[in-house]
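Board notes (copied after class):
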Amino acid sequence: MALSNEAILRSINEDRALGSAMLFEHRHRQASPAFHIQIMDMWRSSDELVVIEAFREGAKTTLSEEFLLMEACFGNFKYCLIFGETYTKACQRIEAMKHELVTNMRVLNLFGTQKGGTWSENKLLLTNGVLIEAHGWEEEIRGYKHHDMRPDRAYLDDIENKE
């Protein structure tokens, strides 16, 4: 028996690792290891600050894109800043999320069309009013504002460099 969209939404709202497996199966060429579930659980926790360290190719960035996209679709934040090691790398996170929003039929069937008014190189505005904005680590990290909203979520991706 198939689950209703309401039941699926309830399930993935409670379990982001399950949501990742259900909605983004095509992005996971190999079975997810247990630490992927732990990462999702840590991000979903009530802890204000979470640091994830894992080996290269551990899928941290892939999981973060999926997690932030689910959180955005559920409206669990209003304004998220993504900081990458460079502006270009941060914008790649936005591009990957845009791609999923327009091509992933599972996401479209559950959440509907999410293309809001502003989709630019570094911004992704969803129809529910959630904004995700990308910047490079070399940029100022203070003073961001969208209409009357200040960022209430931040994600820092691979901000280390050789220097």
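Comment from the instructor: The chain has a mean pLDDT of 86. The CA atoms of residues 5 and 110 lie 6 Å apart.
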